[in-house]
Amino acid sequence: EECKMVGAAAKAQVATNPKNTVYDAKRIIGRSFADEVVKEECKSFPFEVVEGRHGEPKIRVEWRGERKELSPEEISAMVLGELRVAAERHLGRKVRRAVITVPAHFNNQQRQATKDAGRIAGLDVKRIINEPTAAALSYGLHDKKRSAGTGGEGKAD
């Protein structure tokens, strides 16, 4: 494949190019290649995951006729970079700082690896928060917006 695809474009080519279509990198980010979770996850991936020099998982892909080994952080950085570009388009200005969500079960290594992915994507990661916390905060913000125009008594949707 000649170009890097992220999101819907990548998903559309998974059937025709499964060995070079990487997904669910979040499942192995911040883990050791020897980790049982990584071994189990690798069984379901159509792409190849190999052990890096320092015992970390690396995802092997073919890029412009060359074999590359990418870390889960690099894969996540590509996704975060696309999200940054979409946010910049939507806001009409540069996005530098971010708060990134992770599953509540992530350990400190996985959180740090996610923060590293943000840095690779060119973001200043201010916080890493749990996904359920982000959902609750979002609900609270939207709830405030709904009740703001009604004199504070709330409005049924």
From TrEMBL:
Gene3D superfamilies, sorted: 3.30.30.30, 3.30.420.40
InterPro entries attached to this UniProt entry: ATPase_NBD, Hsp_70_fam
UniProt keyword annotation of Transit peptide present: no
UniProt keyword annotation of Nucleotide-binding present: yes
A Pfam family the protein falls into: HSP70
Keywords annotated in UniProt: ATP-binding, Nucleotide-binding
Top-level taxon: Eukaryota
Any one GO MF annotation of this record: ATP binding
PANTHER family: HEAT SHOCK PROTEIN 70KDA
Protein name: Uncharacterized protein
